[in-house]
Design goal:
Two copies of one chain form a homodimer. Chain A is mainly α. Helix content of chain A is 70%, strand content 0%. At the A-B interface, helix 6, helix 7, helix 8 and helix 9 of A face helix 6, helix 7, helix 8 and helix 9 of B.
DNA sequence: GACGGAGTAGAATGATCGTTCTACTCTCTT
DNA sequence: AAGAGAGTAGAACGATCATTCTACTCCGTC
C-alpha cells in the first residue's frame, strides 16, 4: 500500500553484474577510485545497493574486479589492433599506431592501472595493476620474438618502458606526439638488438 | 578558567607554513591526495585548522602548493645529483644512476606528480604536475645539449619518455632494473642522434 | 498456488570529509 | 600597558562516505 503501483524496473539477474562492473569501470577511469562514491555507482548503474553487496563484499573488491575486466577488455582491444598488421616489424609499428589512436580519443585519461596504482599504495587494486603490466609485457615479448629479436624478454621490458613512458607524456605532459617518439625509439631498440646481439658494456 | 594552565605549544609564525607544507607533501606522497584527510594533516603537523585556512583557502590549494614545493625540492635534488658528473655523456649516465638510487629508497612511491595527475582529472593540481614534467624536460634538454645532440629539444621529449617509463616500470611493475634499461636506451638515443643527424624515414 | 531467491527503493548507521566557528593564549608593536 | 595579529584546541556543521537494514516486488520452480 505504501508503493501502490511500482513500475517493473527489475533487471535480469545476468545483466546486473555486467552493468555494475561496466559502470564502475567507466566511473573510476574517469574520476578516480576515491572520488567515485557508491551513491554514484548505484545511480548510474541502476543496481540497488543491496545487490551490489551481494556480488562484492566491499567497494575495494568491486573496484578490483572492474579493473580486472578492464584489463581483459583493453588487452583484447590492443592485441586485435596490433594483429591487423602482419607479424614482425609491421606489427611493432602497429603497437604505436594503436597507442596514438588511443591517446587522441576524447575520453583518454591515461592508463587506468597506472592511475589506480598511483592512488592506492598496496592491496588487491595494486595487484591487478601489476598483473596488467605483466600481461602487456608478455604480449610485447611475443611481438618482439616475431621480429627475430634475440633476448625478447629483455627487449620486452625495454619496450614496456617506452609504452608506459609514452602514456605518461601524452597524459601528464600533453605531448601529442608521444606515441611517435616512442615508436622511433622502439625501432632503434630492435635494430640494435638484431645487428649486434651482445655488446658487453651497457651504456 | 576553562583551560587553567595551557602549555606553550604555539609555534613561531615562520615555521607554521613550512611545517604544514612539509607534512602535507609527505602525507599525499605516501597515501595519495583523497586518502589524506585534513584531520591527519592537523594531527601530524601540529598546526591548528584555523591556521591552515589562514594560509590556504581550500585543501586543493594547500595540496597544489605542497606539490609545487616538492617540484622545487625534487628538481634541486635531481639536478645536484646529476651535476656530480661532468657535462656530456657522463652526466647523461648520472641521470639514470640518480633514478636507480631513488627507486631503491624504502619510501619510493613513484612520481608524486604522475600519481597526483592520475588522481585528479583537471584543476591546479594537474597543472602543477604538468609544470613539473616541463621543468624536468627542460633540464634533460640542457644535459643533451651538453652531449652535442642535434635537436636537443626533440631528444629531450624522447628522454622524458624513458625517465617516466622507468618510473612506472619500477613502481607499478616492480622492475628493479628499470633505470638500467632506460639508461641503455638513452645511450642508443644520443648515439643515433650524433652519428646520423637526419634520416628522413621514421621507424 | 505457494515459496524462496534475487531484484529494487530508500531509510538509517556511524564514520569521516572539508570547512567554519568559538574561546583562549602568546608575542610583537606602539 | 594595551591592543592587534597570529597561533592553539577543539567543538560543530552539513555533506558525503561505505555499509547495513527494512520493506516490497518480481520470477522461476516445486
Amino acid at each position: 500500500m505504501t508503493t501502490p503501483s511500482r513500475q517493473s524496473t527489475k533487471q535480469r539477474p545476468a545483466t546486473v553484474r555486467a552493468k555494475l562492473l561496466a559502470v564502475t569501470e567507466r566511473l573510476i577511469y574517469t574520476g578516480g577510485i576515491h572520488a567515485t562514491g557508491m551513491d554514484r555507482i548505484v545511480r548510474e548503474s541502476g543496481v540497488a545497493r543491496k545487490s551490489i553487496y551481494r556480488y562484492f563484499p566491499t567497494k575495494e573488491a568491486l573496484v578490483a574486479e572492474a579493473l580486472r575486466e578492464r584489463d581483459e577488455r583493453w588487452m583484447n582491444w590492443f592485441v586485435s589492433a596490433c594483429e591487423t598488421a602482419p607479424p614482425g616489424p609491421p606489427r611493432l609499428r602497429a603497437i604505436f599506431e594503436a597507442l596514438a589512436d588511443w591517446f587522441s580519443q576524447d575520453d583518454f585519461n591515461g592508463c587506468a592501472f597506472i592511475n589506480a596504482a598511483g592512488e592506492v599504495a598496496a592491496g588487491p587494486v595494486h595487484d591487478v595493476a601489476r598483473a596488467h603490466k605483466r600481461r602487456l609485457r608478455d604480449y610485447l615479448c611475443s611481438v618482439l620474438a616475431e621480429c627475430g629479436v634475440t633476448d625478447a624478454a629483455t627487449a620486452a621490458a625495454d619496450l614496456l618502458i617506452l609504452v608506459d613512458g609514452a602514456i605518461i607524456s601524452a597524459r601528464v605532459g600533453g605531448d601529442s606526439r608521444a606515441a611517435q617518439r616512442a615508436a622511433r625509439m622502439a625501432h632503434q631498440l630492435v635494430r640494435d638488438q638484431n645487428v649486434s646481439s651482445t655488446t658487453g658494456d651497457s651504456l
